[in-house]
Amino acid sequence: MAPRLPTLLALALPAVAAASQTPTRDVDSNTSPGFVSFPIKRASKTLAARDATVSLINEQDTSYLIELTFGSNAQAVKIAIDTGSDELFVNPNCNDRDFTQQQQEECTSDGKYTPSSSTTSNVTQETSQIVYGSGAVNIQYVVDSIGIPGASKNMTEVQFGVATESQDLNEGILGLGFGQGVNLNYSNFVDQLASQGVTNTKAFSVALGTSDTAGGNIIFGGVDTKKFSGSLATSTIQSPASGDIQRYSTQMNSLTFKSGSTSNKYSNSDLSVVLDTGSSLCLLPTAIVSDMAQDFNAQQDSSGLLVVDCDLQNTDGSLDFAFDGVTISVPFSQFILSAGSNTCILGVQAVESNSGITALLGDTFLRSAYAVFDQTNMKISLAQYVECGTNEQAIPTGSDGASKFTGECSSSSSSSSSKSTGELNRPAAATSIVGFVAGIAALMVLF
């Protein structure tokens, strides 16, 4: 088997114009529309009853889950979507001794796949290990059917992993990276969606939804033109460095802090970044994070996280991430995260330039962006996330991919709470969150 790929897993945090004329999706249709949509819902771990849709759940800013069915008897299992890895696995060890009782219960509630109860399963003799940014899993490969809500039929003979042993992982993971002939020697989930006709192309769009709205979706093979404003700015996915694997990497041109009359464009913020739904935080070079900490009057906790005054969540300001053709504005309210006990942190961690860790933009960035990941054309498309309804459309085949779509929302479509325009004030003293970090050790990215 090809080497399995490391990824930066979710860093756990507490409580989570003109458009194409392609017809919108009818989930009750017996004919596949060329895409399948999974609505996002911000909710607790417990799922509500569902009909023909699969909900993508923001697990208290920890990860985003979808529910699929496996095998001939449609065994329902919830798994986390991750654009930073390539493989699908289920059945993590819910009895990990490092888990709290709540983590064990949540893990168990995600469901379990039992190959022996499926008449279509084929348990192979092939095994592998996947090492993530936090945690690892040993897997045995199984071939079985996977049910896709909204599709006309199940996908058949899909290869995925069943955990035989895992550490520090309390949910299965759906890797949405590159499969057959790129990073793997077999067809992964994204490959199979296209090859079995569920989607027209190996592309999908992600709108995680902001922390103060309920909307959002992931659409395999399609886009929702009522989840963004302006045109989708498209760039080529960068080739990996020698010895590395293919990732969803693109060029960020600059990063600028804006608050009132203050504007600070960070030096050396023209850099390659990976877009990773599996990481709650952004990882950026130390020099940038140090300047950012100064702008926010942040104080570094002993854990390495940046503690800020929680009042800044209600202050008008943004971090503006500039790419070719688009600037994604991330409001302070989305970039500053509550960590309990009246403590707040910036949604970023520093990485040394010589550490070997790739700079990435995680959920604290992606919640303000609409992103299209197109493996067929090796493109990434970005626009500002805005919620103004639903209009799901298939991405056409051909070299243009999603680039022809224009968002139907105005930049002011989403309502926002009033923000203070006062000066940023440094906290009187650093607030320790060591206990918080100890409870969610996955915050520390290990390599």
Automatic annotation (TrEMBL):
<keyword id="KW-0732">Signal</keyword>
<protein>
    <recommendedName>
        <fullName>Peptidase A1 domain-containing protein</fullName>
    </recommendedName>
</protein>
<dbReference type="InterPro" id="IPR001461">
    <property type="entry name" value="Aspartic_peptidase_A1"/>
</dbReference>
<feature type="active site">
    <location>
        <position position="276"/>
    </location>
</feature>
<feature type="signal peptide">
    <location>
        <begin position="1"/>
        <end position="19"/>
    </location>
</feature>
<dbReference type="Pfam" id="PF00026">
    <property type="entry name" value="Asp"/>
</dbReference>
<keyword id="KW-0064">Aspartyl protease</keyword>
<dbReference type="InterPro" id="IPR021109">
    <property type="entry name" value="Peptidase_aspartic_dom_sf"/>
</dbReference>
<dbReference type="GO" id="GO:0004190">
    <property type="term" value="F:aspartic-type endopeptidase activity"/>
</dbReference>
<dbReference type="InterPro" id="IPR033121">
    <property type="entry name" value="PEPTIDASE_A1"/>
</dbReference>
<dbReference type="InterPro" id="IPR033876">
    <property type="entry name" value="SAP-like"/>
</dbReference>
<keyword id="KW-0645">Protease</keyword>
<comment type="similarity">
    <text>Belongs to the peptidase A1 family.</text>
</comment>
<keyword id="KW-0378">Hydrolase</keyword>
<feature type="disulfide bond">
    <location>
        <begin position="310"/>
        <end position="344"/>
    </location>
</feature>
<keyword id="KW-1015">Disulfide bond</keyword>
<feature type="domain" description="Peptidase A1">
    <location>
        <begin position="64"/>
        <end position="383"/>
    </location>
</feature>
<feature type="active site">
    <location>
        <position position="82"/>
    </location>
</feature>
<dbReference type="InterPro" id="IPR001969">
    <property type="entry name" value="Aspartic_peptidase_AS"/>
</dbReference>
<dbReference type="GO" id="GO:0006508">
    <property type="term" value="P:proteolysis"/>
</dbReference>
